[in-house]
Amino acid sequence: IAPFAIENDSTISLDGVINSNTLDAFNEVIRLNPGTKWLIFLEAPGSEDDETNVQVGRKLHDLGLNTAVADEGFIASGAVDLFLAGDQRLLGENAQVGVHSWSDGNNEATDFPRESPEHLLFLNYYEDIGMTRQEAEDFYFFTINAAPSEDIHWMTDAELEEFEIERL
Question: What is the pLDDT of residue 56?
Fold first, then answer.
């Protein structure tokens, strides 16, 4: 059921990249472990399919699951978007959160004006998982300006606090 694994009756984990098969895998792991309350991220470098990623995130949010990053684990890029869908969101000891711009292969997200429809996939998603429009815009525009798509910005403790991502 990659990238997911059942850890116990209330916990599943994610280790690896989110791709076009992840929604089916998520649905299957939830079917097999209906008492799931937590999704623990081990090492999740991002997503290869943003559309699927936001579908999984909406479902995770609708199910009321909590998310956490394991001690020494990390989330980056699209995995951060998925993590944010958790009802309760926690970071383990020395866990890292990496953000950057996206690219469509020709353009960076920052090449488009703020009002551009290219940003709506993420802005609407953030609202769907419980952010206000202002919170969605603040976080999204922070991430795309933090680093170009080929790089990564590891969020500081102050940035994590600003966006209400709490350490255990």
Answer: 98
DSSP characters over 131-161 = --HHHHHHHHHHHHHHS-TTS-EEPPHHHHH
Strand-pairing partners, residue 39, are: 12, 67
Phi, psi values for residue 41, rounded to 5° = -90, 130
At residue 78, φ and ψ (nearest 5 deg) are: -60, -25
- The whole-angstrom separation of Cα 166 and Cα 125 is 21
Q: How far apart are CA 51 and CA 155, in angstroms?
A: 24
Give pLDDT tens digits for 116-152: 999 999 999 999 999 999 999 999 999 999 999 999 9
Both structure tokens of 162? 């600003």
